[in-house]
Specification:
10959_t:CDS:1; nucleic acid binding; RNaseH_sf; mainly alpha; single chain
Length: about 40
């Protein structure tokens, strides 16, 4: 089913990718605040 598929795919994502995304979250949130909630470039 869909949930099982999603869990399997999520588990395929390398841990280093997840850590990198988590570490960049603060910076991206700050950019969004500075940009008054508008789109930011990645």
């Amino acid at each position: 089913d869909l949930e099982e598929f999603m869990v399997e795919e999520w588990q395929k994502i390398p841990q280093t990718v997840l850590i990198s995304l988590a570490n960049s979250m603060r910076h991206h949130c700050e950019l969004i605040i500075e940009n008054n909630g508008e789109l930011i470039s990645y």
